[in-house]
Amino acid sequence: MPRRPIRSVPTVLLAGPAGEQDWPGWLAEQLAAAGREVRRCFLTAPDDAQARLAEALAGLPDDGFDLVAHSIGCLLWLHRAAAGPAAPRPARVALVAPPAEAAETQAAEWAGLFPVPLAVDAVRKAADGTVLVGSDNDPACPAGVAREYGAPLKMATTVVRGAGGFTAADGYGPWPAVLDWCGRDNLAFIA
């Protein structure tokens, strides 16, 4: 049986303040160990978030990289998408555990990212393909990721049972499924 090719494009990791401790930090290490180019954009404050994202994307080729966002990073990406076409454009985007505005767990400093623009056409144009992943018990998205984001964006959603907010405290320090997604060419996320 022939081996399937391994995806080798650069990956941009866009995560909130805890990104280094949660699976995005682990993923960065795994991809770097495999010889992949990894650009970390772990957000610490809203003041410079857009500038830090622009810096992480600088010099990447259109349709020649993947972007994986977690938590607050998802919101930043949705704002960028809603702002209209911007270069460079990723080939694939994975949005993992975007928080909801109503969640009491959100830090007040990030309140400026709400309301989140849920512009279907803009999200579709912002990348060749986007997947949405969430859990059925995320305290930062109590109504559920499919209802809060999947339905308004008309996007299929992968719901992982019992995954909380996909943090290290939820058992998502290492997360092999996201590493697998980064190594495959197709868009589907297999949890």
Can you tell me about this structure?
- The chain has 191 residues and is an alpha/beta fold.
- The chain has one domain: Rossmann fold.
- The protein is built from 6 helices and 6 strands; from the N terminus they run βαβαβαβαβαβα.
- A 6-stranded parallel β-sheet has the order 2-1-3-4-5-6, with helices on both faces.
- Helix 3 packs across helix 4.
- The longest helix has 11 residues, at 23-33.
- The radius of gyration is 15 Å and the shape is globular.
How are the secondary structure elements laid out?
Blueprint: E1 11-15, H1 23-33, E2 38-42, H2 49-57, E3 66-70, H3 72-82, E4 92-96, H4 120-126, E5 129-135, H5 145-153, E6 157-160, H6 176-183
Parallel strand pairs: 1-2, 1-3, 3-4, 4-5, 5-6
Helix pairs in contact: 3-4
Rg measurement, Å: 15 Å
- Terminal-residue CA separation: 24 Å
Strand order of the largest sheet: 2-1-3-4-5-6
CATH topology: Rossmann fold
